[in-house]
Structures are given as structure tokens and as C-alpha cells.
Specification:
The structure is a homodimer. By secondary structure, the first copy, chain A, is α/β, with parallel strands linked by helices. Chain A is 41% helix and 18% strand. Chain A has a six-stranded parallel sheet with strand order 2-1-3-5-7-13, with helices on both faces. In chain A, β8, α8 and β9 form a beta-alpha-beta unit. In chain A, α1 crosses α2 and α5 crosses α12. The radius of gyration of chain A is 26 Å and the shape is elongated. The interface between A and B is large, with 51 and 51 residues. β2 of chain A pairs antiparallel with β2 of chain B, so a sheet runs across the interface. Chain A binds a DNA duplex through α2 and α4. Chains A, B: Keywords: DNA-binding, Repressor, Transcription, Transcription regulation. Chains A, B: Pfam families: LacI (PF00356), Peripla_BP_3 (PF13377). Chains A, B: It comes from Paractinoplanes bogorensis.
Chain lengths: 340, 340
DNA sequence: CTGAAAGCGCTTACAG
DNA sequence: CTGAAAGCGCTTACAG
């Protein structure tokens, strides 16, 4: 437990004032070359490291942002957080983690603690489901924030979301491209925002291609589970004119749908091509491996981090919805050995 | 952007010194009742909040710990982090997140930044695979740390790990309990520590019960994937005396094993009971839902957080391996409608 | 180009 | 029980 070396020590040994040491550390131009060299040498020799807490107190910023999530276990939390952390790290900004479990009282407590710690900004994130929310549980006077995978109804701040609409277009266009004509959409629960966006994209693309769009071909599941995918796909396949492709609103739904196809003795993708949404890790392990539309979670996190950092630098914020493009991951469930 | 209210303001308005305000805030006993009341009232009225950065500078602790992980995307990271966050939150300690991607240079940079920020302690965590590591990339003078889901070869600090051995015993005992006699163990790759621990637990339990333990019944996969589970289970089932139960080293392996059982026209659990390890979310969605040994990730995170907080309070640390008990999750793949 | 002084907002002995 | 003083380790005008 040796005494920590401080800026005073460096100054004394280098024979300069601590103001000068500070200037060297902060790379101010107004320091003479040989003085700078001497200070740098002393810093290296003593192994001096500036105390960020003292700096934060004086400089009035802490180079710290926080992620406030209501769902640290959400299936998408990891990749979102990693994106934020990457963006912050690149600017030597640290990230604090706070989990509210969706409890407003917990959120309030976290927010207070975070503000007490003088965080420079906040990312308010849902790891689980995109929905509008009524802003943070506490007003954040002068502290910028952004919504990630979530959006504020009327907050004057940006929301970063996946581009669900164009993601659905990607899937539809891919299925059309491999020659499918009766393309079903096994969509997620109707109450979700993403569900509506994707329906728009899907419908527009199918229409444009002059393909059929019967009511039976577009269904809404009541959950995102494989069980629902199985049930709905079974119903579709037992109809008079079964689809030759099924686009599912999630990889879980697609997993169930594939089981339904195989159970009826049909082949994938020979008889029915199947494509999911999300690109969770299970997709690649399906038999056959599942084609899917990948949610750009990591990129969304980076965008959110970048935007927040810019706002901290003084960039004005406004209410806007930023949609990050999804990416198609083509695997054997749409282009397989037994495929087209 | 109104001026923030400071302790000076409170003191002036309440007509006391700031030392007294500080004592009230820190709940020191040596403040008169009416003075305390007056100060408290003033604090509430002004909405005063103490600046944690200033406090940290003076008090020489920041009530902040950090999680340094090499794998923020690891499949177990979420639950581990959540446990740490829960433990920290309960004591009003914040947690900083740093991801090294397993790159020692990145780890060094993060560590330096974290130390500069005067974190009170660190949790060094792997989100992915348990293995020994050579301690943090930088010496942490006076800053306590613990290993979570990872262990230091000779570091004088605790490591928190799952109790793999007793987890395997749980599984074996369960299968014996439901009347199985030829129990196979489709274990993970031999190079993993967990694999050896589980083999010990499994072997001991089977021996104790006087059940057969032929070489063919114990196999090591070369990865944890469903594909390997499928291949190995198929080999086991085509042998002269196929098993009536398969204990798998991961849920992914078990998924593959179940596919192999079903593909051969056998029933689960009627002909072959299958149980996994981990309790990932996919387990419950299998058909039939997969029984498994749950890794106590959340609890491990809490234990790690609690131990670190104790060390920060001055509790001496030493090299020790703390094993947290796994839990059996019984589902239809061992006790099903077509079961025993 | 360099440094003396003030001060960020607290807490900690210490005196009374 | 209360407060004056010092100081945590920096940075920021400002003077020279």
C-alpha cells in the first residue's frame, strides 16, 4: 500500500509547477519542448497516473456514460451493450451498468445514483421488446440521453431501432429471388411495433412482384415462441394451397415452423423455404441451418453510443427515429442441397 | 441549465456549517435533533443531491466496482453480470463494464482506465469458458479483485465457479431414481475443467449405485455443439447394448442427442431419457422440453459481488475456489407422458 | 512559455 | 453538539 504518486510529486521532481504537468498530460500546445520531455520522462519514471476522480470534479465531466436497462437478461441485451461499450471505449469513455428490472422505483433509484455520480450521459435501453416509453423516471437536467431499442413518445431525443421494414423487404425479395410464388408471412404478435413495420415491408414487396397476398398467407402469432410457429405453420400447410415459402417474424417461430414442415413429410427448402428474423445463435444450429434477417444489434449499440457522445460534446438533440439496416443471412433453409 | 445546488447552499440556507450538513447526510450520530431536522428539511426543499465525485475524491473510495470481461457476448455473461449488479446495487455500489475481447492489450488499457477512475474493486469474468488465467494484465496495487467463472493459477484471491461435480451427481441420481440402468454420459470436450469435474461426479454416482460403466457409455464430444451431440448419440444408439438414458454435458449437445434418438424411431423418455447441462433458454423449448442441470449463474454473480464488497471493506482475501451448487430442472425429456 | 492562486464539492480531524 | 480549517488531486483563468 505505497503512497500513490500524485501530480505534485511529478511537478516537484521534474522541477515545474503542477499546472505545467497538467498541460502536458492534457496535450496543451503551450508547453516548451524540453519541459514537456522532462515532464513526460518523470511521469514514465514514477509510473504516474492521473486521478480521474479529481479531474472529474474540477473539469466537470467524468467521461462516463451509463446504460440503464429494464432487462439485463433480454436476449438482445448483450450485443446492444457491446456496441455501446465499443463506441465508448474508442473515446476513453467508461460505461456504467444499471438494471431496473422494469421497476419504476428501482429505475428512479438508479437514475439518482447515476446522476449523483455525474455521468455525462445515459443510454436507456430495452433488451427485450421495443416499445414507446414515457421517458426516464426522473428528469435529467442537462444530462443528455438516447433511447436504444426503445422509443420515447415525445422526448426530444433520438431513438435507435432496427429497420424492420426493410428487413422484411430483404426476406421477401430473397424468397422471390429463389423462385417462390406463394410466400407466407408468419408474423409476430400484432401489438408489436416491429410486427407492423415488417408487415408493411412484406406487403409492399409481394405486391410489387405481383404475387398473391391472400389473407391465409399472412398470420399473426400470439407469441414469438417455437410452439406458436409450429401451430400456425401446421395450419398453413394443411390448407388447400400451402405456401412454398414461410417468412417468420423470429428465429424461434421459424424453428417451430420448420418442425411443422418436416413433420408433414415435406422438405426444406425443396418444398417449403423457411426464413427467420433476429439471427440468434440457435439459427445456425437448426437442421437445416436457418436463413434469417439479422437484427443489427451491435451496430445499433455503436450508433447509440456515438450519438450520445456527440450530444455530450454539445451537438443538439431532437426527437428522431434512427433505423439501422438489417442484414440477410442466407443458409440452407432457403438455398439448400435439396433446394432450387 | 440552472446552477446545481451544493452543500454550501444547503448550509447557508439552513444556517449551519457544511461540516454539519455532511454529518447529517452521512448519518453521523453527533448532530442535534433539531439541527438535523432543519438540515434535512432544507435538503428536501432545495432538492439537494450530494456530488459523488467530490465525495469520492475526499473519502478515497468511489463505491464503484468494475466487471472486466473478455467476452461480453458469452452465453453466460448476462446472468453472471446480473448477479453482480444485484449484489452491488443492494449496497449502492455502481458497476462499470469493460470488455477486452480477450485481447491482453485491450485488457491493459481498460485496467488502467478503471484504476485511474479509482474503482474500489474488480470482478474478472469470463462469459464463455472456465479456465485458469494468469491474473490481470496489470498489477492492481491495493485494489481487491475476484475471479468469476474463471480462476487464477496462484492469485491470492477467490474464484467463483459452478459446482460441476455435484451437478453431474444430481443428473446421475435423477436418472437412477427414475429407474434407468444403462446410463450414458455424453460429456463435453476433455480439455475443459468442467468436463473432468463432471466425469468424477458421474462416475462416483454410477459406481455407488452398482450400475455398469462400460467405456462405450462414456464419451467425450470434441465440441459443445448439437452436431456433435447428434453424431455421438447416434453412435451410442447403434451399439449392441444402447443406453436407456443419456446425460449430456450441455443443452446444445442434448439437443443433438434428442434428434438422434427420435431419428432412430425411439421415444423420449420412454426408450431413452435425455438430460442436459446449463439450462439455456432453448432447453424449455425443445420437444420434449429438456430436463437439465442449471448452472447457478445469477447466484455465482451475487456471490462474487458479495465477496468483492467484503474484501473492499477490509476482509482479507486468499486463494480459494468457491463452488456454487447447480440445480436440477426436471422436464418432460426424463419424466414425460410416455415416461416411466 | 511558465507558475501562483483559486477552486471544483465534499469529508475529516480537531478545537471549542 | 457545532464549526473553522485544511485538504483530497486535479484544471482553469490569469499574470508575468
Amino acid at each position: 500500500m505505497s503512497e500513490r504518486v500524485t501530480m505534485r510529486d511529478v511537478a516537484a521532481i521534474a522541477g515545474v509547477s503542477s499546472a505545467t504537468v497538467s498541460k502536458v498530460i492534457n496535450e496543451r500546445p503551450d508547453v516548451g519542448a524540453e519541459v514537456r520531455a522532462r515532464v513526460l520522462e518523470t511521469i514514465a519514471r514514477l509510473g504516474y497516473r492521473p486521478n480521474a476522480v479529481a479531474r472529474g470534479l474540477r473539469a466537470r465531466h467524468t467521461d462516463t456514460i451509463a446504460i440503464l436497462t429494464d432487462d439485463l437478461e433480454g436476449i438482445f441485451t448483450n450485443a446492444l451493450m457491446r456496441g455501446v461499450e465499443d463506441a465508448a471505449s474508442a473515446y476513453d469513455v467508461s460505461v456504467l451498468l444499471a438494471n431496473s428490472y422494469g421497476d419504476p422505483e428501482k429505475e428512479r433509484r438508479h437514475l439518482r445514483r447515476l446522476l449523483d455520480r455525474q455521468v455525462d450521459g445515459l443510454i436507456i435501453m430495452s433488451g427485450n421488446r421495443v416499445r414507446p416509453r414515457s421517458g426516464p423516471a426522473l428528469p435529467l437536467p442537462g444530462t443528455p440521453y438516447v433511447f436504444l431499442y426503445e422509443y420515447g413518445a415525445a422526448e426530444p431525443v433520438p431513438s435507435i431501432l432496427p429497420d424492420d421494414r426493410s428487413g422484411a423487404e430483404l426476406a421477401a425479395r430473397h424468397l422471390i429471388g429463389i423462385g417462390r410464388r406463394r410466400i407466407a408471412f408468419l408474423n409476430g404478435p400484432a401489438s408489436w411495433d416491429a410486427t407492423r413495420e415488417r408487415l408493411d415491408g412484406f406487403t409492399a414487396t409481394i405486391r410489387e412482384a405481383g404475387l398473391p397476398l391472400e389473407p391465409g398467407l399472412v398470420q399473426h402469432a400470439s407469441s414469438w415462441s417455437p410452439e406458436d410457429g409450429f401451430a400456425l405453420a401446421t395450419a398453413m400447410l394443411t390448407g388447400p394451397e400451402p405456401p412454398d415459402a414461410i417468412f417468420c417474424g423470429s428465429d424461434d417461430l421459424a424453428t417451430g415452423a420448420m418442425a411443422a414442415v418436416l413433420e408433414r413429410g415435406l422438405t426444406i427448402p425443396g418444398d417449403v423455404a423457411v426464413i427467420g428474423f433476429d439471427d440468434r445463435s440457435l439459427a445456425v444450429h437448426q437442421r437445416p441451418p436457418l436463413s434469417t434477417v439479422a437484427l443489427p444489434l451491435h451496430e445499433m449499440g455503436k450508433v447509440a453510443g456515438g450519438l450520445l457522445l456527440a450530444a455530450i460534446q454539445g451537438e443538439p438533440q431532437r426527437h428522431e427515429i434512427i433505423r439501422v439496416s438489417c442484414e440477410l443471412r442466407i443458409r440452407a433453409s432457403t438455398i439448400g442441397p435439396d433446394g432450387a
